[in-house]
Each structure stands twice: as C-alpha cells, then as structure tokens.
Design a protein that fits this description.
four-stranded mixed sheet; alpha+beta
C-alpha cells in the first residue's frame, strides 16, 4: 500500500514539471503585413520574454498606430492567436498586434508594479 502511494506521488510530481508539447507554428497571415517573433530581456521580470508582433507592411514616417495586446489562455502560447485565428487581418486597419508569451504566470509578475495610475484612469463614473 505504501509503495503504491509513493509511486503515485512520484508520478504526480514528475508530471507537474512537464512543459506542454510545442505545436507546429503555422500562422494565418494576410497580405500587406509583417510578422516578427522577438525575444528581449526584461529587467523588471528578470527573464527573457518572447512575443510575436504583427503590423502593417508600410507605415508612414512618424505615423502613430494603436497597439492591441492579445493574451493567450492557460496552457497556450504567444503563437496561438496567429495560428488559430485570423487576427492578422486587423493589420489592414492599421493596428499593431502584440502577443506576449505569458507561460503559466497568471500575470503574477505584475504584483511588484503599482496599478494605482491605471485605477485612477479607469474609475467608474458615479451615476448622474
């Protein structure tokens, strides 16, 4: 009985550390857009961060474009939006799409960042 319980615990613990199997990267691209995968070191998080960016192929000098951040779900990755949806078509509307790799962080890394400026900006207005 004890040996069976130990085997179960051992199997359970080794399974917890497994990383998900990486799926093939097959982005659904549209014409007149550029896609790049980028890796940079985040000093705030103390680790390498990977993300995918999609933007219009031609941007006028000094032109400012709106940016949309697309976050994947639990167990997903930064490639999910581009592989399983047609988000690339929104670059035709002059949107820049950024898809960061979040791993299993649940945005916990943000706990060291003050959210007070965001809260002040988005406080609900009192009913008039």
């Amino acid at each position: 009985m004890v040996i069976g319980a130990l085997c179960f615990v051992l199997v359970f613990l080794t399974a917890c550390g497994d990383k998900p199997v990486e799926q093939p990267d097959r982005p659904l691209l549209s014409s007149d857009m550029v896609m790049r995968d980028v890796v940079f070191h985040s000093a705030a998080l103390g680790r390498e961060m990977q993300y995918r960016v999609m933007l219009p192929a031609s941007i006028a000098s000094q032109q400012k474009l709106p940016v949309v951040f697309l976050l994947h779900g639990v167990g997903g990755g930064f490639r999910d939006w581009s592989n399983y949806s047609e988000v690339a078509r929104f670059t035709k509307a002059n949107l820049v799409l950024v898809m960061p790799q979040g791993d299993y962080s649940y945005l916990r890394q943000c706990s060291r960042i003050s959210l007070e400026p965001v809260r002040r900006l988005y406080r609900p207005r009192s009913a008039v």
